[in-house]
Amino acid sequence: MATQHELAHSAPDAATSETLLGVEGLSVAYGDQQVVSDVSFTLGRGESLALIGESGSGKTTIARTVLRLLPKGARILGGRMDFDGREIAGISDRAFRPLRGAQLGFVPQDPGNALNPVRTIGVQAHETARLLKLKSRGEERERILETFAEVGLPDPKRIYRSHPHELSGGMLQRVLIGLAVMPRPSLIVADEPTSGLDVTIQKVVLDLFEELKRSLGLSLLFITHDLAIAAERADHLVVLKDGVVQEHGPSKSVFANPKSDYTRELQADVPAINPNRYRSIHLARNTAERNALGSQIEVRSVSKTFGDVVAVDDVSFAVQRGKTHALVGESGSGKTTTVRLLLGLEHADGGEIVVGDGVVNGHSRSQWRSVRRHLQLVYQNPFTSLDPTWRVGRIVREPLDRFGVGDKDERRERVAEAIRSVGLPEEMIARKPANLSGGQRQRVAIARALVMRPEVLVLDEPTSALDVTVQAEIIDLLFRLQSELGLTYLFVSHDLSLVRQLADTVSVLHDGRVVEQGTVEKIFANPENPYTQALLQAIPAVPRVDQSRRVLDPAPV
Amino acid sequence: MSFAAVPQPAGPRLLSRRRLRVLALPPTVLLSFVIVAIVLLWALFPSLFTSHSPVTAVPTQKFLPISSAHWFGTDYLGRDNFTRVIYGTRSSVLNAFVAVGIGLLVGGVFGLLAGFLGGITDALIGRGVDVLLAIPGFLLAVVLVVSLGFNTINVAIATGITMTAIFARIMRAETLKIRQSVFVESSYLQGGSPLFVLFRHILPNAYRSVLALAVLQLGNAIIIIAAIAFLGYGSPPPASDWGLLISNGANYQQIAPWLIYCPAAVVVITVLSINRISRWLRNTN
Amino acid sequence: MSAISALGSETADPASGSHPPDDRIGVRSRRRYLLYALRRVIQAIFVIILAYVITFFVISVLGSNPIQTTLSSPQAGLDPSSIKKLEAYYGVNGSILHQLWLGLSRFLRGQLGTSLQYHLPVSKLILTALPYTLKLGGMALLISLLFACLLAYGSQRFPLAAGRSFIRSIPSFFLSVPNFVIGLLLIELFSFHFHTFDVLNPDNLVGTICAAFALAIPISAPLSEVLIANLDTEGAQEYALVARSRGLTEAKLFLRHLVKPSSVPAITMFAIIIGELMGGALITEEVFGRTGVGTVMYQAVTTGDAPVLQAVVALAAAVFVVANLIADLVAPLVDPRIELVGPRAAGGLVRGLGRGFQAGNLLGSR
Fold it and tell me: Is the ipTM of this complex over 0.90?
């Protein structure tokens, strides 16, 4: 089996690159807990390398270590780092500081928090511009405006004068990229630079990185949890799990021929890479008699305005019984508002909503209460949707208690049944949410939604806060439950690849309107609307893997 | 609205860390608890700690300095100062509990209502809180005591009234914050009624941060009560409120300074301990 | 670079907040600010009036006719016709509401009544005593500010971790010592031992400084804690990390980036401190035997001089309200994120409209 070094240097196009950054045997600990163990990789000039991993993989720690920006309490246990021929792990902070910014740039994860909110962008840009040692402030300003134009920002002068909170996420990220690139460093470390951005904006930002890499000869060290993006954009990949390197090599070969189980698992779990994971189930569902069951939910010309903001504008769609319908859109598309209208959390300004047999949009609070026995919601964030002071058993039991279903023993039995059906052990019933992982919490939320045996489950981005392997488990679980209980799902998401895996039919929303809808096959094979086409183009183009999964058996935790 | 991947705490690891935190108190916190316990015992069972009388004059033993027989010396009437401090603990400390109790209950209820009901209720209560906060707390307490009568219970009530405003503010802020949480909305979807949500979801989540504040205000109350007693507005002699003791002692500052500094030290150490506990509560939240 | 410009603009990005056209930004926000300022001023007046009413209620209603009692007590030494005149002036024989109206309307016009003890206008009493209190208060304010800044800076930049820890525990210690104890200690040291001032005549410089210290120490504590807490959170923010990644030194980071956002809560605290100063002045002036508004009030309590009590407390409230008003007007100028809503922000958080937008009043529920 090839060693990491051999893998790194055996790629055919390694001949032109000299090593810019070499990391060998790096180990880092926070306090007494080791988070990075014996990690090694090399990055050549003008190349890009992605550190891939889920939470706890140590990827962010490694990035911070390269920049020598570890928080207090963290320390390097061992190993060496060489940058441009110099050893940088052991030198003092004072010796290292001249490199920061000038040779080593940084683009952070959350552009909204990356700039001082009370100072203008221009003032902060000058701090970076000072590294260029230009003659005057006027010259600095010119260079700053040039940089803003370089990264494709419209109206650089306005941006210069603005405060961070006046710009959108995508624009801020481009500002940050511009600032990082301005001193012409040789290496840029980008920590999840596109998570939190809309999918179309992600593409813009990633294209920008590529263009800068090409024209300026930059090396890029990407940190990401998104295997698909890494596979599409990076020359080399390092796959990390729990601080240990699982696999390392050029993207193409890691992809074509994964050597570690973990990489193979990731490939199977990432929706963009394995779109046909549930194909057999979809095919089985698509029979004539299933299709004749009719619609469970119908939304007709629904609108909602908040003040002078039109959130939802004449939206119509139908959800077939027993199937999964997806609402897809970026932020501001109105998908969340639509779902809230469906659940009675907001009042529609116009249109009709039909659930089961009756019209619901004019309902009073008590009328909504009876509708909600059959229509439950699973929220996006499992860390905030469970009361931290309640125990799991009581959380799952809450709907039974509030709706007065059965007596004490019956309720206890139903709770136990619900917990089992989501694949959690019965001991969970006595625990509090604080001690559970994100995936476990979301299972609890699903159990709670199911304990009333509803007909429809609305899922609002239920996995976007979870790691990709956990996401796959939850989606497996959802499929199993759907076939066991005959549920109808309304699934809201911004992740098109996930929708392709999961849904039967889909509505694409943009700016509060439905721009296109239909079956998943049709939309993905033949999108007619330019916005839909742009969304599809933003999905990373990666070699696909075909790994159908058996999910109908109860999944172990 | 997309959401970045959130790091997940691994189950077993976090559980053991939490367990450890509760059991292993930092030494200063442990000491603080011991001190507060002693002070509470002084307040509840003063005769257990001393055999002298706090009121009977012994003229032959005036102004004796600190000694093994008289740990805090004797005062201008020959009374053992340590005894006087112990007997004064009840009105100095227990009344602080009364004050904080009043503030917490009255302020807490108003804050909860304001945060939960919003609208007119919130506006009205908010105005009331603004006004109450506008009058400097100490001055308000003084005029309240002047009107109600000079004894320590009234001092406690007055102090409590001035504290309602800050408790109302904090409770309102917490209630507002929790009211917006996802699990509260989720409860409505599960058939919960507003009253149920208020008592079973909002209150249990809100009281924790208010508790840390309450402990802090306890120390504050002790100081305010002592200050009012120092001015002579508390119970008249032969009462031995800590503040009154210090004030009496000030008359003899040059001949018997221990009459000031011993009770003062007791005040400082008690309040320091309470503050330490409050900080620890805040940190472990 | 054609490739990059072809990457498209985001001016139509629905994820962005509002994009007001350039030329209108200045005018629109100036107008909003003026409206906000007007609203706040009206609220302030309202609060002052209500504060007067509550003070009146406590002194005259709860206290069961203090004016009458004091006037008729032999210690006042007044003859029956003077008593009748004063009673008529204060409307003692009328209803409570009438008395309140008399007092309030006079207060708003600046007439504070007559002292029952000195037979002088209350305003004269206060004005004579005010300069001393202002001197004391001003010095105390400066000292507490100095302390707070030193402690805040030390908590972040002191070289030893143990030292930083110690510095952080100092405000808590300051809060545990009553100001009269500090006062007595300072008197012991500087008057009895070092003879730098005389308790019978404490208005010289050293005496004033000692009194200011006693007043300042407990008051500096909450200010220090707020500053330290804010520096801590700001320092941990992502943008501090990003600024460091640009090669900024710790010192420059502190000065340029952390001070400004941390200062808003401090500005708010400032107003609260002024309130605390007024309360503390009462005791401090007594302990040091100084002249000042505090002593005036102390005298008024002893003699049951209700008009003086009423005036002093109501004025103190007015001062506090004005201080808060100034803080509320200055804060948005310092931190542009602050929403220009009144202290009772309706909602406060605009619910997520599916647009991931949050407009929050950063001063919390003020």
Answer: no
